[in-house]
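Throughout our pipeline, every protein is held as a single compact record rather than as scattered files. This encoding replaces a full spatial description with a residue-level series of whole-number codes. The remainder of this section carries one protein's record, kept here as part of the documentation.
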Amino acid sequence: MDEAVELLAADPEARPIAGGTAMLIMLKQGVFRPERLLNLAKIRDAAPIEVDDEGAVRIGALASMRQVEHDAVVRERFPSLAHACHVVANVRIRNLATIGGNLSHADHQSDPPAMLMLLGARVAIRSARGTHEEALSSFLVSSYQTTLEPDELVTGVVVPPLPEGYRTRYVKFTTRSSEDRPCAGIAVAMDVRKGRCAGLRVVVGAVSPRPFLATEAADLAIGEPMTAALAEAIGARIAGSLDPVGDVRGSVDYKRHLVRVLVRRTLVEVAGAAA
């Protein structure tokens, strides 16, 4: 990794490639023509998944989706993150695609970013100038746009421990096939105590140019029992706050309706599981 960041600093025209699942498509379509590619795939010790001294799970940038999906630590601590990686495309893609490449590419129609944003993940970034971490919520600027500088590499993602009592769920909805990119992805974390909502986070992915953190959801829910009527009201509020991108997977109105229904269903399911 030291050599990689030095090469990037010395060669502004070089672009890193790991699994290549996104890069190769862009090359074939002629929308991206880098002068040189910097192959990261054989860097050793760049894909560990381990728990640090503060209880956060650190996932190396070159960890594949398949590796994250099946890792015992991830499955125990963040089962919904394992599920979000499990529903990415198909097993062939998951064996190649890396978590670092997924976040660096910043495709808004992807599953892991919504779940990682829900969990308050941070992106570990490295260059010849040094290292730092940035919240994923600010790292992802828009579709295919991040704060990453040309001489910087994503070296991992840091997922802090979830507060005790929270249950999570990720729901992916596709309009064409099970292997398709999501038309919408709903990530929910809820803490229910004595029948009332003590904490709620909702992130909507794949609908807008970046995952949408619905801060107003918690304002409506805290201290209230999560009834079907409240879940419907939260779903409607979130759907109305979105700025969806209409495409072959659905129109703007269709996606708003879809988000309202999926948020309602997911909130009721998580509340029922917590009870």
Remarks:
- The CA atoms of residues 8 and 20 lie 17 Å apart.
- Residues 252-274 form the longest helix (23 residues).
